Amino acid sequence: MEMNSLIFECSNMKNGEKFPVEHTGRGRDISPEFIIQNLSSYAKTLAIILEDIKHPVFKDFTHWLIFNIPAREKIDGDIPGGKILSCLGNARQGIGYGLYKYAGPKPPKGRQHLYRFTMYALDSEIDLTGLPTKKRFMKMAKGHIIQQGSIVGKYE
Question: Which InterPro entries match (predicted)?
Fold first, then answer.
């Protein structure tokens, strides 16, 4: 089965544009809403990773990891913190700048960074025991990702 791109929109932000303040560490620091347009019928779960792709020290610095979201065409914004989210079908959040929660952009004042949301559609849940880091998640997800897509936003 050939993997096609996952197309999704992020509330109040178009690809390549400025990150809305409410979704940053200088605003309400809440996760945006996601609308998925071409989700495969084979998708069982979704995962989202937010990374600072212009971090001067850490390559693709992880801000947020959430996985095992039951496959759906809309993910509401303002996802609460916590390791396991019963409100979202027992989705799990991992370790990043946001420790088991969303943590939006907050670069040093006067420095513009680029941030990327990558969404993955998977054919199964990922049973990640121990520390749920991006690296460990990606290793476990290998072979289960059937679609992926990304949106980039900038913020300073």
Answer: PEBP, PEBP-like_sf, YbhB_YbcL/LppC-like
Question: What would the pLDDT profile of 97-119 be if each residue is shown by its tens digit?
Answer: 889 999 999 888 888 889 999 99
Print the domain residue range for 15: 4-155
Whole-model pTM? 0.94
| H helix runs in 31-147, sequence order | 134-141
CB 101 within 8 A of CB 48: no
Q: The domain that contains 29 carries what CATH number?
A: 3.90.280.10
How many whole angstroms separate alpha carbon 5 and alpha carbon 16?
Answer: 17
Residue 147: exposure state from Cβ atoms within 10 A (0-12, 13-18, ≥19): buried
The identity of residue 127, as a single letter, is: D
Please give the Cα distance from 118 to 84 (Å, whole number).
20
